[in-house]
Amino acid sequence: MTKGGMESVEVFTTEGKGRGLKAQKEFLPGDVIFAEPAYAAVVFDSLVHVICHTCFKRQERLHRCGQCKFAHYCDRTCQRAAWLNHKNECSAIKRHGKAPTENIRLAARILWKIEREGSGLSEGCLVSIDELQNHVDSFGEEEKKELRTDVESFLEFWPPHCQQFGMQFISHIFGVISCNGFTLSDQRGLQAVGVGIFPNLCQANHDCWPNCTVVFNNGNHEAVRSMFHTQMRIELRALNKISPGDELTVSYVDFLNLSEERRKQLKKQYYFDCTCEHCKKQLKDDLMLAVKAGESKPSADTVKEVIQLSKDTLEKINKARMEGHYHEVVKLCRDCLTKQEPVLGDTNIYLLRILSIASEVLSYLQMFEEAADYAKRMVDGYLKIYHPNNAQLGMAVMRAGVTHWHAGLIEAGHGLICKAYAILLITHGPSHPITKDLEVMRVQTEMELRMFQQNEFMYYKMREAALKNQKIQVMPEPSNENAPSLFHKKE
């Protein structure tokens, strides 16, 4: 079954897994299999004043809707593009006296769209909203209680003159949001800023080692034509060669967890047991639990002790980060690494987690040489574990490259930036803001590397003078959030 621009994929049904997507033609790494605009999307409650409600870009100054005073936009183009979806919301917010929570706003936008277009197949959609999984029957007591609260709040907000829907259908919509809400990120792809429903993407099944990745594209603000200026969409991109008839899969969770942990997370959030090859055969688990090789192999008790210490340290680190005590974070990392290094192997996930935090926080504190050493070790471990075209791997390699450049290690910095660029070209594509930034860095570090190879002494002299004349670019403050996960699950 294909429809409106979705000719290259087909929906099929498999035993045990339900619906899935299948390729109709061959794709190569980096190919866009399909792009899909949101059926409906909203900005998170906490960010409504700093994120554009149309394209989900973070902007310094936003225009506010003059009527409801709630919605914010980049410019008139974004505001005009939003009107069809915002019109009913605008008057409902004025009538209600305040804007409801993001879940209620998203449900309302979906139901207003159904009121306008019906609940059948929308243009370009392979399935209708009616057909999406809601998993309401699998909800636990706490989730059922939240669902009842959401439905009650929705009914208070929903205007009496609009089409009235039955309780069962409203519950279905909230179930769909809970299980299929996709995380929207800002233009840098580093912070989750909203949630949207993309019916076609919802058909892609999970695999811990997928052949596709999803990237959120905020549209092109340089484009004059309104359609391209604000055309926010997701893109499903191929990670390796895909043949006609192959199932298209994406990963709902970060791979950098033991197979048992990933399975627990998938069961809790998405109500299925993962049967992918990596989970069944526990592939890469041995690497993620690696201990120091050599003649004096540590005892099982010592390993257990160090892993417990690592878990305790990570909790203390989270607390110190929340409070902005970054020097305390560095001390905790150094102490933990001293205990981990004689015991854990270089791909052990507990070691890698501490190395990642240490390199990020030290970079922020401008202690670049120590940060670069930790970043290099982190990347070496990641390269042995992650899929070679994993977006999170690409971002980690990019961070390590920038850290090396700041430390004046131009050769290693340029090499890492080139490696990151090759990965992100596949996962994000050449026109994504991150890839464009990386291309600028790649060109700059290549030029600096040539200068360094011609005359090392002069290179350092010029670098020193340049850094004196310009304020060193401060690394962004370390985030306490993980990279945005694929699907948004209400906590």
Automatic annotation (TrEMBL):
Traced from the root, the source organism's taxonomic lineage reads: Eukaryota, Metazoa, Chordata, Craniata, Vertebrata
Q: Which residues belong to any copy of the SET domain? A: 7-253
Instruction: Give GO terms for biological process.
Output: methylation
The MYND-type domain extends over 52-90
Q: Catalytic activity annotated for this protein?
A: L-lysyl(4)-[histone H3] + 3 S-adenosyl-L-methionine = N(6),N(6),N(6)-trimethyl-L-lysyl(4)-[histone H3] + 3 S-adenosyl-L-homocysteine + 3 H(+)
Q: Which SUPFAM superfamilies match?
A: SET domain
* Protein name (database record): [histone H3]-lysine(4) N-trimethyltransferase
What keywords is this UniProt entry annotated with? Cytoplasm, DNA-binding, Metal-binding, Methyltransferase, Nucleus, Repressor, S-adenosyl-L-methionine, Transcription, Transcription regulation, Transferase, Zinc, Zinc-finger
Q: Which InterPro entries match?
A: H3K4_H4K5_MeTrfase (IPR050869), SET_dom (IPR001214), SET_dom_sf (IPR046341), SMYD1_SET (IPR044418), TPR-like_helical_dom_sf (IPR011990), Znf_MYND (IPR002893)
Q: Annotated Gene Ontology MF terms? A: DNA binding; histone H3K4 trimethyltransferase activity; zinc ion binding
The main location is cytoplasm
An annotated GO cellular component of this protein is: nucleus
Q: List its EC numbers.
A: 2.1.1.354
* Complex formation: Interacts with HDAC1, HDAC2 and HDAC3. Interacts (via MYND-type zinc finger) with NACA isoform skNAC.
Record keyword DNA-binding present: yes
Q: Where in the cell is it found?
A: Cytoplasm; Nucleus
Against PANTHER family, the record matches this protein to:
HISTONE-LYSINE N-METHYLTRANSFERASE SMYD, HISTONE-LYSINE N-METHYLTRANSFERASE SMYD1
